[in-house]
Amino acid sequence: MNAIALAAMGLFIFVLGYRFYSKFVAEKIFKLDPNYVTPAHRYKDGVDFVPTNKFVLWGHHFTSVAGAAPILGPAIAVYWGWLPAVLWVVFGTVFAAGVHDFGTLALSVRNKGQSVGTLAHRLIGQRGKVLFLFIILILVLMVNAVFAWVIANLFISYPASVIPVFIQIPLAIWIGYAAYKRNMKMLIPSLIALAIMYGTAVISSQVDFLQIDLVRYMGGEEGAGLFGLGAISSAFFIWIVVLMIYVYIASTLPVWKLLQPRDFINSHQLIVGLAILYLGLLFTNPEITAPATNPGADVSWFPLLFITIACGAISGFHGLVSSGTSSKQLDKETDARFVGYLGAVGEGVLALISIIAVITLFPDRAAFSASYSSFADASGAGLGNFIEGATILASGLMIPGSVASTIVSIIVVSFAATTLDTSVRLMRYIISELGVEYKVPQLEKKHVATSIAVLSSMALVILPEGPNGFGSGGYLLWPLFGTSNQLLAGISLLLISIWLRKLGRNYMITIIPMVFLMFMTLWAMFQQVFLQWAWYNEGSNTLLFVFGAIIFVFTLWIILTAAQALMSKSNPGFSDEDLK
To answer: How confident is the model at residue 25, as a pLDDT?
Structure first.
């Protein structure tokens, strides 16, 4: 099949989904009110509650949820063939992700900007709330470890991307002050910042001494490094420390100082990146050389496909962003459709081109099969294959290979960093909420909660020993990340369903994807935790077994509690002002 035709069909379905289905959900189900006073106005504090233009907020939301996952998950899932991956990305985005992201945003806005974890108390009771908060806490901890691991490894593999990525920070701070202190529009400054980043990328990809190659500085791959760890492990450790210092600062600053302007830059970066890849697709007109299906796979796609592709189809982390930060910045309630649903569509567009970049990379099916000979091989090669495939697509616009690979790595790192510091901010919120719950006032303090979030994330990513040796925490946690992410999405859809039922509205649009997602994820998780991988018998996987077993039991407990609430006709703790 021709890759252009495949991309055109996917994009057409996305357009139909946003134009018609999201409008139906907004007007007939959520019944958005343009005159409703949103939490951003009601609780405006200049730190977390900040009324924000919908285009700027879309930029923050989109880049916060995008990260590296909608690239990495699809690039792995094509192991089972491109057809199931494309179908799940396209229809999962339209009927599951869009409703989930939109719904958690609308639910939070109607409930004082509270997160889905806090709202669980009102919807399914105190016990359900505490269990849900612990699941969320474990998930964001894994998100921090996984994305820090991805960024550190990309800095090591693509040293030319370091300076362009870090130059974005002072540029974003300048834009934040210009926009909120001098009332300057963000658009032109953000485009200038993007031009500076990409100009720096072109120069650093061509000039050797501008590439921050820590491995080379330590004597090459055979160097002794710090404390005898070796050059690569030492470089990895340094980058993790640098990243943790950065996210500590970024997650404690007011959102307008760094979070919003940097994410606005990244939104343009993503648009430019997508434009390069899709235009490159038109000019290169590649053929799909990967198979549509892979009947000889050593691991069944059913149900593992639905947890391998999380971001890009549906992801529980999106609900944390929608209800954790975006709901506190929504200017008008009617903007929720644009920010929430269109944000999910944007991620689907990214996941689609990620699939196409990989399945058109290889000269023939034999070459694809050699790279994707097993699921383990696919997991290890997926991200690298995407960067290489994206570089080839960009060559259709006459962009040199070294420049293209640097720009693609910058895009991946920028989105992963955005997700990382948003996740640390969310983890700080959750730790503070648990401090309130268990009457530990020290945990309610911003810097105490942030310190716990940063130090625990750092420990999780560098301490576990895995197949890649030191610093394998992010690699080890990736399999569990997908399952816990999808379970969180299922629980959030269940909460929205309870809310809609209490309001007397049609909740089938959320209950149907919830049942499907819960069934697939619990099935996959049971196989992984208790049967297939037997983590408790493998020393390096003990941590995964413990995390997985806890999440599995907590989820079943929450589902039973929520089922009672869904069937109940009572309306516990709801105020008419917030919910009607």
So the answer is: 97
